[in-house]
Amino acid sequence: MMATVERSRPAAGRPDIELAGQLGAAVSRLLRVVTRARAAVNDGADPMDGGTFPLLVALGDGGSMRSVDLASAVFSDPSTVSRQVAQLVGLGYVERSPDPTDRRAFSLALTDSGRAALERRQQTRDAHLAQITMSWSGSDRRRLAELVDRLATDLANDMHHRCESSGSRLLRHSQESA
């Protein structure tokens, strides 16, 4: 006879937990759909792996930085970022140069081609989202953008707090190189 596993359910009468469950389900669904939509919209036209896009965004926003700082900026493991950076260097989107403060390290920066690829990807994303939300009111689109930005900020702050509390190497690398 197989044992059954009981799933924890929100406490009855706890609307905050029930709403968090609805939000969690919606975010999970959104992430699955976004992953599939990204592949469909790209349609093989962009040689860049979807997982490397956040690295271009971080370098575009933060400028030149060391690999460990880039890993911290995107909440990823340095070894993963190292492989992704190698792909971006191979595509000519990122360049490595000796770090002026530490000869053992390299500084990473977007190339002109990398900046152009970032802009193309962002324009494609923006055009697709504009098309999807075309029937929404301007106030609905603004409110969604505000709320998603707020959620992303709170999640990022929570990740930083968790990394600090646990001594995670994701944040420790960033602090050691500062």
Q: What does the model show?
A:
The protein is mainly alpha-helical. The protein has a single domain (34-177), classed as Orthogonal Bundle (Arc Repressor Mutant, subunit A). It has seven helices and three strands, in the order ααβααββααα. The chain has helices at residues 15-42, 53-62, 67-73, 78-90, 112-132, 138-166, 169-177, and strands spanning 65-66, 94-99, 102-110. The chain has a three-stranded antiparallel beta sheet. Strand 2 and strand 3 form a beta hairpin. The longest helix has 29 residues, at 138-166. The model is unreliable at 1-7 and 172-178 (pLDDT under 50).
Map the helices and strands:
Elements: H1 15-42, H2 53-62, E1 65-66, H3 67-73, H4 78-90, E2 94-99, E3 102-110, H5 112-132, H6 138-166, H7 169-177
Antiparallel strand pairs: 1-3, 2-3
Helix pairs in contact: 2-5, 3-4, 3-7
In short:
Helix content is 66%, strand content 10%. It is mainly alpha-helical.
Q: From the helix content, strand content and strand pairing, which structural class follows?
A: mainly alpha
Number of structural units classed as domains:
1
Strand fraction: 5-15%
How far apart, in Å, are the first and last alpha carbons? 57 Å
- Beta strand count: 3
CATH class: Mainly Alpha
Can you summarize the main beta sheet?
Answer: 3 strands, antiparallel
What are the segments in which pLDDT stays under 50 over at least 5 consecutive residues?
Answer: 1-7, 172-178
Spatial sequence of strands, sheet with the most strands? 1-3-2
Count of helical regions: 7
CATH homologous superfamily identity:
Winged helix-like DNA-binding domain superfamily/Winged helix DNA-binding domain
CATH architecture: Orthogonal Bundle
Rg on CA atoms, Å: 20 Å
Mean pLDDT reading? 84
Series of secondary-structure elements, N-terminal to C-terminal: HHEHHEEHHH
CATH topology call:
Arc Repressor Mutant, subunit A
What would you call the shape? globular
Helix content percent band? 55-70%
